[in-house]
Amino acid sequence: MLRWRWHHIVNWLESTGIISAMLLLMMWIGWLLGGVDTLYVMLGAGMLFILFAPRLMPQLLIRRMGAEVITPGQSPLLFDMVQRLAERSGLDHLPTLYHLPTPALNAFSTGLDAHVSLVISDGLLRALDGRELAAVMAHEISHIRHKDIWVMIVADLFSQMTWTFCLLGQILILINLPLWIMHKYTMPWGLIFLLIVAPSVSMSLQLVLSRTREFEADRGAMELTHDPQGLASALQKMEDAQEREMKILFPKLGRVAVPSWLRTHPRTEDRVRCLFATARPLSHPEIWAWDHGVSLPMAKDLPRWRHLSGFRW
């Protein structure tokens, strides 16, 4: 328990630092674009994001993706699995389970406090065995326990806000370009430089935060299951599925390697290495009963252009 509290404090300090840096970047852009008044507008917008967005965005996301609530009668084995893991983690409320009707392999948690939700794709439910699915559920429950959802929603909104204001600034500069050419307007080169690099800085901060949280969620999953092999196997299946989807979308490109600095999640190889460094493989792994989702309605295949929409885990 003491170790978990220490990690919680470190996570909170790190998250606070990154969120503060993103907020300061937004305020700086506002000040350069419109002076002190715009700076206060950006500060106010940031405070509203921090206070209200994490409570409003989750349900909007679930509705937009077309996920449906899973009842205990539809999948008692899944409910039993999640309940056991939630009790081990000390959650006060059992997450609401949602079935995402897509064959993509995907799972994510969202919401706050008593309104947390755990969304699981149909493809994931049918592709994983009980041991692998329990590891994935433990990972998502660790996100809930660490309160990662609040942090990631705020960081994502700050990043989008930064992109929007930078785009607005670039449009204003293009509008004033003829005046600059006629020497009737002095081009603010410092502002131009900031508008070019700010989106990349904001995205980099968001990616650093996301990768750190994934490692911590993996660590939390090991505290709940003590089974690195189960999570490693699930991660490999998900990566293989994503590569197959990439081949469907880009059949002539072969294998596409995404640069590490553009990944929202750490590389699977790095995660697996940390998993086995955190926990030893079990000689007699825990038995998790699972029916591969046969009790739930099967999802229809998505149009090709939507194949990658589910990869968020």
Descriptive report:
It is a single chain. This protein is mainly alpha-helical. The chain has one domain. It is built from 10 helices and 4 strands. Strands 1-2-4-3 form a 4-stranded mixed sheet, sandwiched between helices. Strand 3 (107-110) and strand 4 (117-121) form a beta hairpin. The longest helix is centred in the middle third of the chain and has 37 residues, at 189-225. The two termini are 26 Å apart. The model is unreliable at 302-313 (pLDDT under 50).
- In helices, the fraction of residues equals 55-70%
Q: How many domain regions?
A: 1
Task: Strand order, main sheet: write it out.
Answer: 1-2-4-3
Give me the Rg, rounded: 22 Å
Residue stretches low in confidence (pLDDT < 50, at least 5 long) are 302-313
Shape: elongated
What class would the helix/strand composition place it in? mainly alpha
Largest sheet report: 4 strands, mixed
